[in-house]
## 1
Amino acid sequence: MSDTPATYDDLLDRIGRITTVSNASDLLSWDQQVMMPEEGTPARSRQLSALSAVHHDLLTADELDDLLDTLAATDLDDDQAAVVREVRREQERAVRVPTDLVERISAASSEALPAWRDAKENDDFDAFAPHLEEHLALKRAYADHIDPDRDPYAVLFEEYEPCLPLSHAEDVLTTLREAVVPLVDDIRAADADLATDAFAGTYDTDRQEALMRDALDTLGYPWERSRLDVAPHPFSTGTTYDARITTRYDESDPIDALLSTVHEFGHATYTLGLPDDAYGTPLGEARDLSVHESQSRLWENHVGRSQAFWEGFLPRVVDHFPALGTVSAAEAYEAVNAVDPTNLIRVEADELTYHLHIVLRFEIERDLVRGDLDVSEVPAVWNDKMESYLGVRPETDAEGCLQDIHWSHGSFGYFPTYSLGSVIAAQLFDAAARDIDGLTDHVRRGEFDPLHEWLTDRIHRHGKRYETNELVRRATGEDVAADAFVDYATAKYGALYDL
């Protein structure tokens, strides 16, 4: 930009403060889920509500609007234009929403979290239902303020994926459902005898944590900027200077914790791969949740579930659990990839049936937001869809409609990004395999720098410079589509199950 550098610098200063407030709010949310005392919710609710109001007021200030108007008429370079575009996108939505509604949504989320946790523990959907009803009312009002003439679910979906239309997500989900359902049917009928019990046993949680830290060391997790903690629902949050992941432990299943940890590592490595010198600007922020999820799904599935990974990493597992010394890499590979349509829990699902879990949630929350489904109907509809799509019916709401944390946050529109991320992950890994000589051998030897560097160059360092489809196209030569995932899944599971 040639004429008004001071104006652009003023914009950077303002959005830097906005980002800092948002990061502080994220840190308080992390603390609430990980470390906060059980009775801390009343104060935390007020703290988060106040920060959400400050963030909203900064974003909707007349001075910011004036700066954006001035810069829109200014000769900007490509990076500056991207920054203005992203700030304007967020600002235009924010100015339409009253501050008091933003505060109410934040407070409702903070209060719903412990209510969801208790309801899940006690298998009591009725205890959580009022919080879900409140969230729906608030989020419908939120969507109505942004655009009263549009589908409210489409408006909410844009909170998580603003660059791809909801119709694109629906097309991806339809393609996945049409490909996965018959593939799972074929697997049900197959005679293959996979080593599904390779990891049967009891595993001390302290030793599991040591294994998780060993895995993160192997993958290249920089502890000077990172943490690993425990939470009821694994998640990742943070900045390029401070990325935090959580996992959870099951004494009967160390692979659940391992794959969850690798998944969250994928999120964290994206966050850590953002450029330090762009912190506080859109160029230092991740390109929304579809791309974020592509990083976690790539590391979890294309690396952590690969045979090459288990050929290299299994000895580390045996170091921590010597009783597994008789398990072969081939058996480990079969165990972590076995398809189990009877599994009720999304975060424990194999990578095929996972997408049917997403379709189920997407359809339910879309109908809830649109007013086509009443909250009281959720448990029965959930169970019916689970039986229809996966052939299994939950016996409790704790393992059914209460299993996910997202609705306690009011995160309606989030779930489709999981499947979008999976298809992008397949596209990215295909492209990386073309560009990196011997990528499979690198994974087998535990050499992950080449993949880190490729992902940083193609995805991480750009922040929000490009919109989703352009970012993926620049990295892979293709638009966002499900074809690569379908090809990958068909080949992989066809080989595993002798289809």
## 2
Amino acid sequence: MIVRTFIPVYGAQLARLVIPVLVLPIVARRLEVDAFAALMSAQALAYLVMLAPEYGFATYGARTVAQARGEEGRLARAAREIVAAKLVLCLPAAAAGTLAALLLPTLGGDPALVALTVALGLALGLAPGWFFQGVGRAQAYAFLEIGALAAFLLLVFLVPYGPRDAALVLALQAGPLALAVAIGHWMTARRVGVARPPWSAVAAHLRGGASLFVAKAASAAPGLGLVYLAGFLMAPQLVAVYAAAERVVMGSANVLWPVMQVVMPEIASRRVHDPEGAARVFRRGAGALVALGVALGGFLFVAADPIVRILFGAGYGEAAEVLRIAAFILPLVAVNAACNNGVLVVHGRDRQIMTIQVATAILVFAGAALFAGGEDPARLAWVRLGAEVFAAAAMVAASLAAVRAASPAYPRSAS
């Protein structure tokens, strides 16, 4: 079952990596530098807007649904309540996203860019992949995601747009994604039905997912937060340089996260009745994840110059230095993901995850304020690398404490 689920989900995650990378050479050459910087800033902000309706439910929702497998009534109630909670969060997300977009210098107050940034963020946040992952049918929504990304790539090739049309490119991304999300919710409704859940139950899920929401929001600071902050600290040309390298690293990190995300529900469901089996699943997933992180980081470090030249052109040469620094982040992201999803989430240590991620976010923004900005985008990469070192070390320490405190069979085998 794990292999059957893993292959399409990993394929969707690879599509998230490959397709945006294939899009970058096209838009980087067809858009002017300041328009490309606006597009990168808008996409980063859209992913920040996503955090409110997503609310950590990618993990909390998948875990809740996985624990209700085999009890259709309980599963249906939980799914409807979580969807309602996500819809409640859309209004504050839209308001905060609109204000943040209007303030961002690289967007210049463009109404179309502002509206599309918020729309893309809401569509990303409402994605129902958590439900399909929890019921063991993650491949169903994975194929929808792959289709939306493929449509984005095709539209970027076929639709004509000028050197200032950053908003049109953003619309080409948001449209197929919104359609995939709508279809995913229709499929979910067919399984669980449609009914208005009691507010008390919705509020309970909001409380239950609060720690993971704060952790998820804080975890965005090293990547997306710095791209957004760069719009205030540097000129558009330098924002484009930093964002170009960051996009390659973030795309590579997308290859890493699904390894433990896919196996986490299996570890959680086996932990009580088959602790040795849960330990085996963890060891294999974590080993594969760390090996992949080291391999990807090494590749980006060695091939930074040709990657930047091929993807972005000669005008983005400074991004190679940023990319070489950021390449060291990938092994750290792998360790972070293994501990986060493979141990701490399974053991219900949501508050510890939140604490570590918040501390990391504080380090990032404090470091950016003290050391970054000016004419050197590489400083932002050093700030992020330092924060990821702290996060990985803290996750390892918290995970060791969690497995020692749990029942003897699983933690000894897992550690």
## 3
Amino acid sequence: MPPAPLVDVTGLATALKQFADDRNWEQFHSPKNLAMALSGEVGELTEIFQWMTEEASRGAARHPDTAQAVREELADVLMYLVRLASVLDVDLNAAAQQKLQRNGEKYPVEKARDTSKKYDQL
């Protein structure tokens, strides 16, 4: 029996493709353009947190001044990521499962617990 999916974005990918098709935006959705748009949205998300303290950043999704912006920018990041994966025909679930396994090999619990060192410094 295959493992339960970690990520299922099938419905979102379909909705985003339809959204683009309805507007004839497929012509603009090259991997390059989508990656650049994704990067821009990550920048907008980062900007929300830029001058916050560590403590304030932990509550940003609940604070009235930032909660809506955090939700919207996270949604933008998710949607561009899913659209990019769809255009590239990348199975995000398979990619996430493989990467999680590789990270487990690079960061074994007994070496990585309680440290932020990169795998090549463990």
## 4
Amino acid sequence: MSKPSLPQGTRDFDAATVRKRNYIFDTIKKVFELYGFQPLETPAMENLDTLMGKYGEEGDKLIFKILNNGLDNEQKAGKVKAGFEKILEGKSSKEITERALRYDLTIPFARYVAMQYNQLALPFKRYQLQPVWRADRPQKGRYREFYQCDADVVGSRALLNELELAAIYSTVFKKLNLPVEIRINNRKILTALAALCGGAEKMIDIAIAIDKLDKIGIEKVQEELKQRGLSDTQVSLIRQFLEIGGSNTAIIAALKPLFADNATGLEGIGELEYIISSAGLPELKIDVTLARGLNYYTGTIFEVKAVGVQMGSIGGGGRYDDLTGLFGVPDVPGVGISFGVDRIYDVLTELDRFPADVYSGTKLLFFNLGTAEAQKSFELMQQLRAKGVAAELFHETAKFDKQFRYADKKGIPFIAILGSKELEAGEIVIKNLQTGDQQQVTFDDLGNYIFDRPVQ
């Protein structure tokens, strides 16, 4: 038998990791709830036609497709052969696959809204914390299976929603004790840039290329733009645009004359100006190089970067004013953000920002020193559990060193020793394994004992 292994880009999570991840999840969920968002879950897989064509050329390549099953051998052979012939011609094939794992939470959410639109109270504010899958090349901070935590509002065009989503980002990362920069741009400005470069139909090509700027650099971006059919003059104009920098005020001042004759561009600039001035968040920075290469964004776009860490974005999102139109329900405005929990976890680990109490599991281990002693220990343990103290009784009578090793491996900070003498005296020994201190505690006083792990 071959050695067991995991699919590339996936991971197991031990107890300590799960607790730290839950700390992130719980922090985000509490803030979502504070802002009036309600939870939603959708299936792990969607129909393939729900997903395809929604993420742009690059995104579609990363969708994990699920092979069809349930056919008998004769049916399967004929359909698979026909399907592969289509694939060799560069076409999709329902004979091979009709379903796929979700690539993100936004498109499934749009599908849900389209299906439930007449039953929803608008604006509809939902949050969703579930795994997604992408056939990407695994590397630091990039996995093939990972969690997203999304918050979206549909049914409202008010920029108040952008203000609240920016505030949610700020609040969550302050609670996580993680310094960040919240970058913001507007796709209307990029649409205007495309118009200056010959037409709005060049928008997607420009956005996809610009979205790679951090990864490949300006020279490679220029090469890609030329490969996508833009002239040297147009590429030079885009480079001039990408080099706009400085304070938020300076960037706004530089953008206005560039798009003075383009109403769409001026509208995008005005929206940026309003959000920046109204949010009052020092970590909110305009970044004209922010493009987010997904097709569905139409207005404000966000991206969050951790300060002082070499890591990709740990959050992102934006406005998508006709996403449900993809599913037959047009003109439903929406805006949303997403938290990259796995990258946030990696950053908090690298910066050592997890609080000490996030590691806590079992607080107290009762040693098993005999039948009568274990029976009393179980009774006392249940009393502690009723008070919210996580406790265990070692599963069998064993030597002290074996029970000590168990406590050490699980990181249990306190042990309780109840031998025959203690049983007779109505007392129990509580020992702090980190400090070595121990106390005799009566059975009646045990429930009042404070089991706190000292902060290291």
